[in-house]
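HUMAN: Now follow token order:
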Amino acid sequence: MYLGLENGVALVTAASRGIGRATAERLAGEGMTVVATSRSATGNTEKIGNGRIEQLALDLDDSDATAGLVQTVVDRFGRLDVMVLNTPGPRILPALNLGWEDWQRAHDQLLRPVVQLGTAASRVMREQGAGAIVLLTSTWVRQPALGGVLSSSYRSAASAFAKTLAAELAGDGVRVNQVMPGATGTDRMQGIVEMKARTNGTSVDDEITKVVKDIPMGRWGVASEIADAIAFLASPRSSFVTGTSLTVDGGAVRAAH
């Protein structure tokens, strides 16, 4: 499907690997210039198809850095057409095993940068009269999981923020949507099942089997499948879609709404 994204400028955060990296590659493959941030970025430029990825070193924990990120992109490229708000995963622990410092750290990973960058991108896009913001959260927003209280709590707050932005910007040519991935075969997911195996005294294969048995499609997702959903919501092909939350989980969440 032709997405109509060529020659646009996108900003994708937490894009060194996993879904963030797959998204940067997908958008660049559509002909976009993609600024891909991560703590490990080298500053290199990568040509992909008719587009390119411009790596930019940035730590989402640094509020001063994130505060100026959108303006940095606009100053360099003249506009911002797509903002993909991706954040790293926090600690996986039972709620009673967490200290207040864990909550503060998760706030600075999952909510504060989303609000900072989402607000800044919204202002630029409203001035342009066009733009798309896609927030990446998790199915844990809809169906919390044991050990995932930090993720489900702060991503739920980020989800509400995105829904509000969508309503406020709908008349300004700016669309705001959310993608909620389920179990996806990333390094992060591999780390989670390894931790569960250690905790439960089982094998990694046993823990993977437990996850997959609850997915009607019988497998984990692939990062590129999540990136495809993000690219669609970022593109003019979804021009009448805003304020929606798209679950991409192989049917694992059974809730009707």
Q: What stands out?
A: The chain has a mean pLDDT of 93. Residues 100-128 form the longest helix (29 residues).
